[in-house]
Amino acid sequence: MGRIRTPAPAARPGQDEDREQRIAALRTRLHETAGQIRSAQDWTRYLQAAARLHGETWANILLICSRIPDATLVKGYEAWRTAGRQVNRDEKGIEIFSGTRQRREPDSRGAAEAGQDHSWRDAQRVAYVWDLSQTTGQPVPLPSAFPAPEEEAPPGLWDCLCWLARREGFAVERQDGSPDDGTTFWAARRIRIPPGLPSGPATWALAHQLGHVLLHNTNAHPPGATSSGCHGIQKSEADSVAFITCSRHGARIEHAFSSPQTWAGTDPRSQPAAAILTAGERITTAAAKISRLLDHYLAGNRPAAAPAEPATRAGHDERPPQSAASTATAPLPALEPDPRITGVLYDAMQFYDSQLARSWVPAYLAERGISDAAMRQWHIGYAPGGWDTLTGHLRALSHDDDAIQAAGLARISSRGTLIDHFRDRVMLPVHDQRGNIAGFLGRARPGAGPQVPKYLNSPETSSYQKGSLLFGLHQARDLLAHGATPVIVEGPFDTIAVTVADPSHHVGLAPCGTALTSKQAAILAQSADLSRTSVIVAFDDDPAGRKAAVRAHGILRTVSGRLQSAVLPGKDPAEILQTEGPEALRTVLRDQVQPLSSVVIDAHLTEWERRLHDPDGPLLAMRSTAAVIASLLPAGSAEAIRQITGNRELATVDEEMRPVANPELPEIARVLPADVACQTMRVAERLGFTDYSDVLAEVANAVTRDAVPPGNRLADGAPRLAASSFPHPPATIRHDGKPVIPAPSHGSRLAKTRGSPRSRR
């Protein structure tokens, strides 16, 4: 009789009991190991192991290193065989916990809840793994590090940590007034690092404060509370997060820990082993979150490697492996790109790079003012003109046709064959927010003919979604972290021109074949501290460009209150760089800007140009434009105006059309933001209202109308305008009933050109 593969039901209770006994024995061993961590040297040794064994739980790190202190990479038996290595004879496997439920990470408000389940508590079985030192066979690449000289941080590490801080809602500033390990101001949501620290200690301090942000950011902080002077378990947790982060990513910083007994205790009744297990789990979870993001961003434009097989689920044939969401190395909250697609796109970029030198592209780019260094920085390449040159190359690299099509690199021809999507074009890779290649932009050869699209985007795919991508953001990330001003432009070469011309102050960003979207604006707000910098829009000075600028204003005002427009001299940024050089483009970006609201107002007034010669044209245009100005007001300014007016519309003339004093107007003028006050004056001047109070009164009334229901408005209809004298004191009514007429030099345009208000009625 053949072997029975499924145990009889009577045998299951015995198996379950045996499994529970093994789990209980392993838990006992874990507590014994944790209880042996008494000195600072013991604690440091296990933190070093946590930096090496990225992705393992704290409990399994203790179990692994209690057997092999210098373990570097562990896998199950079958996983080692798949990697081309064989476990040495007589090598005993390391028992670890496996089959755990999903763990909760610290959220943006602080640590995970105190009652969270830990992996060693939830384990469903015991698994066996072996360290690399217990195997022989093909070489296995260890996790890459980013080495740096002592007291220095690897390039990009500081900037990535600054970005992570902003992602958690905290701005980073280099100012005096904080200790060497920095300070977090909880209410102000700012992290302060001393400016005199070298890059290595400064990076340590920022990682230390990020540990506080992830683990200790609760609503219980009183006003004015900071993380300065942290001590006890909180200091140890933050120091440990910084130690793992810096050690894993190559920042060599010496740090002396205190003994864990100072915060875990020594009395067995206080359960010091349980305290060490709890703290270690919190520390490694926070450090894993930081390192997971750093691995993405420090990797630059390399495709994300497939995550290493966690020891907790490596090499078990009895059950399918759990999803990545159930491990400490869970992916970012947004969906990860398909590794197959990312790999195909990366190989395509390498192929386009290899074709560049033998093509017409270098000469064309040099003519446009783009240097060889910029070509390399932006990974500009060339797509050959053959029908299936790229497709054949990717097939030779073992990519299947489905993956090539899914990446948007090829399509089915009318003959049923697979042909390249991009042919005979300058190729520009587009990266997503993580730094992964999402797709490409292709520019046709000059003179290709009207039937050939000038620019061609990758088709919409799982990775290339135009409304969620900003060309140039990947290259601009470090510059934005240092305070460079984002400049929204129309095309990819405008993007490159802006960044090349003034990289320390301005960086170019462009939507990918679509108008600017709210999602792109949100991505920009996550990547830059828009509270410190403005946003400049540099669109073409033509009807289409002005229309796009007006639309961009409505989208960008939700993420920034400092919006500007570059005044382009009839050329786009790429043309300025090509014909006049980088200095001319720098001058435009630094000195020739105006409020973006000016473009909005001018576009609105343009719609009234045909009616300005009508008797009531200027008055109607002014009222309509005043409503637009009112819509530009911040909520606080609008509320201040409503409080000044008492939610009533201002009547500036009485029933006999005599001017009425409105003492509210000077007060309203004082609460207007400078930008809105400027627009009010511009409208008055453009329409001939040298008396600005006419426009100001209409702005205030538009604010009131937006807030007051129609049934509660004044019964006599729209307010009448008078020639008061903003910014001078308004006209008044004397006791004898005769109005004081303003001086002609301050009179309204309507009073001068069309008679008195009475005659216009």
What keywords describe this structure?
4-stranded antiparallel beta sheet, disordered N terminus, single chain, 42% helix, alpha+beta, 761 residues, 6-stranded mixed beta sheet
* Cα-based radius of gyration, to the nearest Å: 33 Å
Strand content: 5-15%
Structure class: alpha+beta
Report the average pLDDT across residues: 80
* Share of helical residues: 40-55%
Major sheet strand order:
15-17-16-18-19-20
Q: Tell me the total number of β-strands.
A: 20
Report how far the terminal alpha carbons are from each other. Answer: 111 Å
Q: What is the approximate shape?
A: globular
Count of runs of 4 or more consecutive helical residues = 29
What characterizes the major β-sheet? 6 strands, mixed
* pLDDT < 50 runs, ≥5 residues: 1-11, 101-118, 300-334, 710-761
Report on the structure:
The protein is an alpha+beta fold and 761 residues long. It is built from 29 helices and 20 strands. A 6-stranded mixed sheet has the order 15-17-16-18-19-20. A 4-stranded antiparallel sheet has the order 9-12-13-14, covered by helices on one side. A hairpin with a 5-residue loop joins strand 10 and strand 11. Helix 20 crosses helix 21 and helix 23 crosses helix 27. The longest helix has 27 residues. The radius of gyration is 33 Å and the shape is globular. The N and C termini lie far apart (111 Å). The N terminus and C terminus are likely disordered.
